[in-house]
Amino acid sequence: MDSKNTESISLTTLQRLPNYLRYLKTCEQQGIVYISSVMIAKGMDLTPMVVKKDLAVAVITEGKPKLGYCVESLIYDIEKFLGYDNTKDAVIVGVGKLGHALMAYEGFSNYGLNIMIGFDANVTTSEVNGKKILPMNKFVDLVKRLNIHIGIITVPKENAQEIADLMVSAGVRAIWNWAPIKLEVPNNIAVKQEDLAASLAVLSNRLKELMKKE
Amino acid sequence: MDSKNTESISLTTLQRLPNYLRYLKTCEQQGIVYISSVMIAKGMDLTPMVVKKDLAVAVITEGKPKLGYCVESLIYDIEKFLGYDNTKDAVIVGVGKLGHALMAYEGFSNYGLNIMIGFDANVTTSEVNGKKILPMNKFVDLVKRLNIHIGIITVPKENAQEIADLMVSAGVRAIWNWAPIKLEVPNNIAVKQEDLAASLAVLSNRLKELMKKE
Fold first, then answer.
1. Do B200 and A88 touch (CB under 8 A)?
2. Stretch B160-167: mean pLDDT, rounded?
3. Do B174 and A104 touch (CB under 8 A)?
4. Is B179 helix (H, G, I), strand (E, B) or coil?
5. Per-residue b or e along B114-123, where b marks 16 or more CB atoms closer than 10 Å to that residue's CB
6. What one-character DSSP code corresponds to residue A92?
7. I want to staple A181 with a disulfide (CB 3.0 to 4.6 A). Which of A25, A29, A157, B58 is the partner?
């Protein structure tokens, strides 16, 4: 959740916000550029008063007299409010030595990046670096709820594809894969493959070149 | 050490081999292409019989009648025998979680690469994955003796430069640096800098692009 204080927001408003998004995206597709709260209310079977109150919670954009709200800005504001644009938080699956090392690595914060939670099939410790380690059965729900879109895979290669599938089903859109296996994912998912062996092999080859020169 | 059985080789022969190398490289620089064992003996103040016996241990190249040995081949054979061309073995300094994970990583062997030994300022376990963990005071000697030219740095960034200097002094020629700090090394040393935070930041940016497109 972004900027505004969410504690005082009613659950019903929160639950309606994704519906606004869906509705506004349909409007956008139909070429509608501006929309009034009355029109939204009509389209969504709500009272204009409810719409005004709901939007006041999530939206920074102000409506223009006679024109109403800019649809694109509404979508942007609500997505931001719901954390749908979250590109900084990540979760990690597989808290073995490598996962542990990544969770404890402090350099990520230089970029505002944050591994929020670790998941493991076999939780042996409840925390690493003040971050929770949770069992896999909490994964999908929590990742969805927190709108986390970056997943890091540090499980053995036998389990990596299964975890990737789970991540995609939970809304993860970018995967940092440390398992030495090529993942099969839908086209709209970004994958960064880490290949430790290839990295060391590159260095070994540079060493060979260096030695040949002498 | 390479191919041939070294157990039956006399220590004096082993100790002389680097001297042959030095002498043969001088000859090569002077433009000498072929050399006889008699010439080597003269140049190095040894008897031809000793030279023949020594070379028989380390050298595969055969001398040509009247011409003698090809100098370049002699150098190549002796270097190979002494392991001076070793581009596959590595040592790691810093056996924390990351170092531990790298030592336990099995993918390296696909490329014939091998992290032979781990070193740590504070040894808490004697072995990882069947590989020894040793204190730092054994570092220089052992790395020199085993002709290891690849060093992996997984110490905190405060100590990384000091370890790099130590590695260079021990004959390491290629460094895989996981500490988030730019190392100062001589020109003839290869460095591969691993930057975890930048890697994750790249993925985060790709995610941003993906989301913008939608």
1. no
2. 98
3. no
4. coil
5. ebbbbbbeee
6. E
7. A157
Confidence at B159, pLDDT banded by 50, 70, 90: very high
Rounded-to-10 torsion of CA B183, B185, B190, B191:
0
Q: Which residue in A35, A17, A37 sits closest to A27, CA to CA?
A: A35
| ipTM for the predicted complex | 0.72
Of A77, A82, A191, A74, residue with least CA distance to A146: A82
**Cα gap A27→A71, rounded to integer Å:** 8
pLDDT of B110: 77
Domain with CATH 1.10.10.10 in chain A: 11-82
In chain B, which residues fall in CATH 3.40.50.720?
89-201
Q: Give me the helices (H) in chain B, please.
A: 11-29, 37-44, 48-58, 71-82, 97-104, 139-145, 157-169, 196-213
Q: Does domain A89-201 have CATH number 3.40.50.720?
A: yes
Closest CA to B99 of A90, A107, A196, A115: A196
Using CA coordinates, name the residue in chain B closest to A115. Answer: B200
